[in-house]
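Two proteins follow. First one:
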Amino acid sequence: MNPELSRIRLAHPAGAAAEVYHHGAHLTSYVPAGGSEVLFVSRRARFDAASAIRGGVPVIFPQFADQGPLPKHGFARLAEWVLPDASETAATLVLTDSPETLHLWPHTFLASLAVELHENALEMRLDVFNRADEPVEFTAALHTYFRVADVREAAVLDLKGTSFHDKELDRDRAQEEDELTVAGPLDRVYRDAPDRIRIRDGRRVIVLEKEGFADAVVWNPWTEGAAKLDDMEDDEYLRMICVEAGSVAVPVRLEGGGRWSARQRISVQAL
């Protein structure tokens, strides 16, 4: 990790810890009290002002993936956010429009990410304020990379019956399986996803709870995808799975002067 990039370390009296970079308002570590690391960060992740950090929780705004004219996943994850408020267990980072963002996306806005550390959970809240009079549309997500012991033995729960778009196969269907397991490249957008999704990882269960985000994305690049990423070791796909809270299938429409807010909560339970 590059010490030249500013970061905030949060610590709870009970022993929980987290780390957030100003660059991208990027959460790179969350360790619950008495537990182990919950987030995956690649050993080859680049920590420089020009790159997105591979792993942790990138903030996706105002465009998800390549669903529009902007650079992939928008500009928020590459921007330097300002830290107006922080304590031992909480921090809020802010991003506003600038000449650089207006060149890419001609809208005035303020986005804030609040991170709050509890003894047994970590909460993140993303707020977007439309500072113009006219409405604006955007997509957004918290692109969370979860660390797992072996993705081939992990499973994503609670998605049975939910409709999704399979980006690998370019088709729509509803999930029939009780559990989603990973045995190849996976890239799915679950529409109107449940607000509670669990990941079984060995003897622990990671719980993702969301509010305000309509959808969920599940992604693993698998062998060929990982080999194409120059900021990820070829075998690291085995140690991660992305389960992302987002509003990506249908853009958010925010009226002039309006505010949009969404949040996610991460916790861990023992089996």
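Second one, unrelated to the first:
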Amino acid sequence: MTSEATAVRVDSWIWSVRLTKSRSMAADACKGGHVKVNNESVKPSHLLRVGDEVRVRQDQRERVVVVSKLVSKRVGAPAAAECYVDNSPPPPPRELFVSVAVRDRGAGRPTKRDRRDMDRLRGRPF
């Protein structure tokens, strides 16, 4: 399960330990500047070593992990959890997310009153 190598590509590692859903998504995150190793933006081909701190930004949340084991193949969730130490801040509570008004399907276009209620909910003036 573990590789005998002393270094593994960062895109391969974050995919292997299930921080991203696919390796191409991991590579795209690296190219977009969403992955940092030891506080430096890295390319997908950057080599990771044990003890490196990896920061992955996803969906308004940042995962901060310290590499404890190198793997180059995707592993199961229990094995993946052993490959890093998670130092991520806790996710924000659900109450902080803005609720979106939902209309019943087939209810037609909103009336003027509905539109004003939606504007009031969003904090917009009339």
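SUMMARY FIELD: The mean pLDDT is 87. Residues 8-90 form a domain with the Structural Genomics Hypothetical 15.5 Kd Protein In mrcA-pckA Intergenic Region; Chain A fold (CATH 3.10.290.10).
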